[in-house]
Structures are given as structure tokens and as C-alpha cells.
Design a protein that fits this description.
With 425 residues, this protein is of the alpha+beta class. The protein has 3 domains: 2-26 and 409-424, no CATH class; 29-165, Immunoglobulin-like (Sandwich); 177-359, Jelly Rolls (Sandwich), CATH 2.60.120. 19% of the residues lie in helices and 34% in strands. α1 packs antiparallel against α6. The longest helix has 28 residues, at 397-424.
């Protein structure tokens, strides 16, 4: 009887482990970039095509993705993604995956790598041009570039976070216009989390409305891709007094959640018409900041102001705003209605201020430096980062179910043996 019990226990344990290994194998087609333990030296996405045609003006990939919520609207048979990525080991293959499908690799996805790419992404950086077959997609699916490394690891470049949909892009009555409030960014990061409040004062021109306010490529010092954020409140500017303004009626509020390192931090409100406004950022969770600007743009030298803890600061961070025509502005004395209550405010306490710059300084005249200057989706060093967060390719749920089934089977067998022994007595 003891021998039989030992055999049954061993069989149950094998069943449990086999179930866990099986579901793990099914879930481990690739490693989500956010779960990759090694360093990604640098990466960039330069071109997006639908059926071989550019979907944006060259150099504005980041703007295209930002304006479209990281969505490529079809219908198309293929979506092409051209860019480069560098790891601390060699890349042996490039590929892609569509939704929950199987990864597809091809030697044709390698293209010639220019010298500046190596300078920006390290000695193992390579350029790719991946053309994904999306002809079988109905509805929407994530389209993800993949890189297979020398050690066999397959990394999904979730930093790009692209969704393809067969739906046509929504029509707009007027095309949004994005303007740089500051001329460009430097390589000096500014940590907002060390301050109690950060403010941006700006003017929405007559006949226009605010679509979004953006802190360009806001760094997190390679922090996690979840749990980092802040709370944004917008007020109509009252006179020349900051304190009086934030004591006035709130126009609207917005919660920034799960911000990714060096992606654009877009702050949106339901409706903000023409007028002078103050956006105040408070309640920071984790390290969150911006890049010091070279200068305020000439067109906004008299209308854009930057504040730290309520005091005007002469060293602003790089920002821009997106505007569109306001077809139905309120009466001159009417105040814009506040939006519905935002998502729950972050409650996590801010972490200690970092001591190192969040990313490596880009080399001059490299694709990385160009990408940072033009808004192209880029990342230097570390994990992550533009746009919303993905669930990744690995889920613990199948493993938990497999283990639970195995343990349940083992418990049932042991119970049966105990009952049998009692009957025998």
C-alpha cells in the first residue's frame, strides 16, 4: 500500500508539473520588452506603411501614432514597420506577431544598417523592415515587431505598442495642429517628483480649442511601466497670481497613469476653448519628469510660462500643445463645463529622486538624436516605454490553473486511500 501511495503521489506531481510546463510553453512565444531583464541600448521606429504606402509625413512617426492613439487604421493586407533596435548581444532574426498568432521570422526583414545606427544603439544594433500580414485580422489586433537574440530569447518590441484595425480612421471636421511651445529639448532631465507642484501657463488662441497638452518624451529614469503618474488640473488663469488661480474653479481634471519612460505624456480634457489657462501637475507617483528646453519658441515667448511650486521658473521643460478649430465656442462670459470625475487619483508615495540621467545622451546627427528632435518614437536604454501598457505575452493564470488541478487530483487520491484503509480496518 505504501508503495502504491508513493507511485500515485509521484504521478500526481508529474501531472501538475507537466501542466505548468505545458501552459508555460504555450505562453512563452516571446518576452514582452517590459519583462526583458537585460538592457535595450536604444531603438527607434522610423516608418509605418499600409500596403506599401507611407501613413505619415517622413520624420513624424511619433506624431502620427500620438494623434491616432497608436492605432493604424485600415483596411490593409500588410502593415510595414521600419526601424532599428540594439541589445547587448547579437540579433539573429527579425520577425513579427499579430494578435495571439504564431511568430513569423524571415531573413528578408534585415536591411542595411547605417553607421549612425551603430553609434546610437551600440555595436549589435541592427535595422529592420518588417512587413506583417494582417489580411486575416477582423476587428483589431496588436502588431508587434520581434527580435530573436543569440541566446535564443525572442523579445517583443512592445515599446511601439501598435494596434491595427480594419476600421477606417474617424473623419474630423478640422485637422489638429501641433505647435511646439519650446524650441527643442536638451539632454538635461528635470525630475518633477522632487517638487510639490509643476505648472504650465499658456494661451489657446481665439477660434481654437485644446486637444491635448504634451510634455515631450517625459522620462521616468528607466522606472517601471506601471504605477508612475500624476494628477493634472486645469484652471482659467486669474490675473497675474498663481495662488489665486489655483484657488479658483477647476475647469477639468485628468489622471496620468502607468506612464512609460521617455514616451510623450499627453494630458487631455473633454473641452477647453480659447482663453488663458494654467495646468498644474501634483501627486506624483514614482519618478516622473521632463527634458529641459533650449528656449521658449518665439511665437510663445510672451504667453508660455513654467512654474515650480508656484514660482515662475526661467528654465522650462520641452512642451507642445495640439489645437483644432472650435466650431461651437461658448459665449464670451460662459465658463467651460468641467469634465466627469477622472479616474482615481494615484496614492503611491513618490520614490526618492534618481541620481543618474534616465537615458544615455544621444549622439549628434544620429537617428536617435533626430528622433528625439522630431518626435519619432524612440527609447534609449533600459526597459520600455509610448503609449498605453500591454498585458504582455506571459500570464500566470494558466500556470495557477494547472497547479490547482494537479493538487486537487492529489488530494482526491489521498482521501480515497484513507477511506479505503478505514474500511479495511
Amino acid at each position: 500500500m505504501k508503495r502504491m501511495l508513493a507511485i500515485i503521489c509521484a504521478a500526481a506531481m508529474v501531472f501538475t508539473l507537466f501542466g505548468a510546463v505545458t501552459v508555460n510553453a504555450a505562453a512563452s512565444k516571446f518576452v514582452d520588452q517590459n519583462d526583458y531583464d537585460e538592457t535595450i541600448v536604444g531603438q527607434s521606429l522610423d516608418i509605418i506603411k499600409g500596403d506599401g504606402t507611407d501613413l505619415y509625413k517622413p520624420g513624424d512617426t511619433g506624431e502620427y501614432l500620438s494623434n491616432n492613439g497608436n492605432t493604424v487604421y485600415g483596411p490593409f493586407a500588410t502593415v510595414t514597420m521600419r526601424g532599428w533596435i540594439g541589445f547587448e548581444q547579437e540579433i539573429t532574426e527579425f520577425g513579427y506577431v499579430v494578435g495571439d498568432g504564431e511568430p513569423v521570422f524571415s531573413p528578408d526583414f534585415f536591411v542595411e544598417t547605417e553607421g549612425p545606427v551603430k553609434a546610437a544603439g551600440g555595436e549589435y544594433a541592427l535595422r529592420f523592415e518588417v512587413t506583417a500580414d494582417v489580411s486575416a485580422v477582423t476587428g483589431a489586433a496588436r502588431v508587434l515587431p520581434l527580435a530573436k537574440l543569440e541566446d535564443g530569447t525572442v523579445v517583443g518590441a512592445t515599446y511601439y505598442n501598435i494596434t491595427y484595425t480594419t476600421e477606417k480612421a474617424p473623419e474630423v471636421t478640422s485637422k489638429p495642429v501641433t505647435v511646439n511651445l519650446t524650441a527643442d529639448r536638451t539632454n538635461t532631465p528635470v525630475n518633477f517628483s522632487g517638487a510639490g507642484a509643476v505648472g504650465f501657463r499658456f494661451t489657446v488662441p481665439e477660434g481654437m480649442k485644446l486637444v491635448k497638452f504634451t510634455v515631450v518624451q517625459a522620462p521616468t529614469w528607466n522606472g517601471p511601466s506601471t504605477g508612475i503618474g500624476c494628477y493634472a488640473t486645469i484652471y482659467r488663469w486669474t490675473g497675474d497670481d498663481y495662488e489665486e488661480t489655483i484657488d479658483s474653479e477647476i475647469v477639468a481634471e485628468y489622471a496620468v497613469e502607468d506612464h512609460r519612460d521617455c514616451s510623450n505624456m499627453d494630458i487631455t480634457f473633454s473641452y477647453v476653448p480659447a482663453g488663458e489657462y494654467l495646468i498644474e501637475l501634483t501627486e506624483f507617483t514614482g519618478n516622473l519628469g521632463g527634458w529641459a528646453a533650449t528656449a521658449i519658441s518665439d511665437d510663445y515667448a510672451e504667453s508660455f510660462f513654467y512654474y515650480l511650486n508656484g514660482e515662475e521658473n526661467e528654465n522650462p521643460v520641452h512642451c507642445k500643445m495640439t489645437l483644432s478649430a472650435d466650431d461651437d465656442p461658448p459665449a464670451p462670459t460662459e465658463k467651460p463645463a468641467a469634465t466627469e470625475a477622472p479616474t482615481e487619483k494615484p496614492t503611491e508615495e513618490p520614490t526618492a529622486a534618481p541620481t543618474e540621467a534616465p537615458t544615455a545622451e544621444p549622439t549628434e546627427n544620429t537617428p536617435e538624436a533626430t528622433a528625439q528632435a522630431t518626435g519619432t518614437a524612440t527609447q534609449n536604454g533600459g526597459e520600455n516605454n509610448d503609449g498605453g501598457s500591454d498585458s504582455g505575452s506571459k500570464s500566470p493564470l494558466p500556470v495557477i490553473i494547472g497547479v490547482a488541478v494537479g493538487c486537487g487530483a492529489l488530494a482526491a487520491i489521498i482521501s480515497g486511500i484513507v477511506v479505503a484503509k478505514k474500511k479495511k480496518k
